[in-house]
Amino acid sequence: MTFKLEPGSLIVSCQARADNPLHGPMFMGAMALAARDGGARGIRANGADDVRAVKAAGLPVIGIDKVFSSDVPVYITPTFAAAERLAEAGADIIALDCTPRPRHGDAPQELIRRIREELGLETFADISTLDEGLAAEQMGATYISTTLSGYTSYTEPKPEGPDLELIRALAARVNTPIVAEGRFNTPALARAAITAGAYAVVVGTMITNPREITRGFAREVAGGK
Ligand SMILES: CC(=O)N[C@H](C=O)[C@@H](O)[C@H](O)[C@H](O)COP(=O)(O)O
Questions:
Q1: What average pLDDT does this structure show over 130-142?
Q2: Nearest CA among 108, 55, 43, 59 for reference residue 82
Q3: Per-residue pLDDT averaged across 114-125, rounded?
Q4: Of 44, 85, 218, 223, most Cβ neighbours within 10 A?
């Protein structure tokens, strides 16, 4: 069965890297349940083990598999093998890097085609610029997500806030549903994304990363240092 994300959906990204005390499927599974009870309509999760754990929340799962290489910059579901692992774990939608940067394995267009035809799943194209969004639409991505704005060499340095301008620019040019993702750190910013033309909003750090949230408070309490 393929899940459709509903318009106006909040998607909560439940991710914790290996150095985070909350790393692991038990914690991410609990985060997903808390997010569901709070009104999330989808979960984004990294790696097959976490995807399996967050499925218990009964929401559409957007799976990614971060695979880092020392010689190429692309790490979000860079290969078909990574997509297959996520499909086996039960992901409903596969998110993948759709920038034109150097990578190992298939080009994003080919990955999108294979994910649709061989795995029967929909795709989230993670992009960083308007041109990449336009290309992702041509590739047949189901959703276009602003995930990588501020994280590619040509969109760095990363601004403090989210890229609402990219959402407006995409909304004027594409028919594919746009997902706002990356630094939507307050409810007001998430609302602004919808007003700018986003179909759904992904929030990660500010909901599921207590260490990072604590850092923000600690900095301010220490006088902004
Ligand atoms: C650039 C990259 O690798 N972003 C990742 C993509 O899955 C995650 O680390 C982010 O937490 C996610 O995109 C949500 O964004 P934010 O945590 O800012 O709400």
A1: 98
A2: 108
A3: 98
A4: 44
What ipTM goes with this model? 0.99
What Rg value do the Cα atoms of the chain yield, rounded? Answer: 17
CATH of 9-221, one of 3.90.180.10, 3.40.50.970, 3.20.20.370, 3.20.20.70: 3.20.20.70
Nearest to 15 by CA among 49, 40, 50: 50
Q: Where are the domains of the chain?
A: 9-221
Mean pLDDT of the chain: 97
CA distance linking residue 160 with residue 121, whole number of Å: 33
- Residue 157, judged by CB atoms within 10 A of its CB (0-12, 13-18, 19+), counts as exposed
Closest atom of ligand 1 to CA, residue 150: 1
Ligand 1 binding pocket mutation candidate from 11, 13, 68 (most atoms within 8 A of CB): 13
Task: Kindly report the protein residue whose alpha carbon is nearest to atom 11 of ligand 1.
Answer: 204
- The residue assigned the tokens 């799962």 is 61
Burial class (CB in 10 A: 0-12, 13-18, 19+), 117: exposed
Q: Is the pLDDT of residue 1 over 60?
A: no
- On whether the CB atoms of residues 101 and 120 are closer than 8 A, the answer is no
The pLDDT tens digits for 170-216 are 999 999 999 999 999 999 999 999 999 999 999 999 999 999 999 99
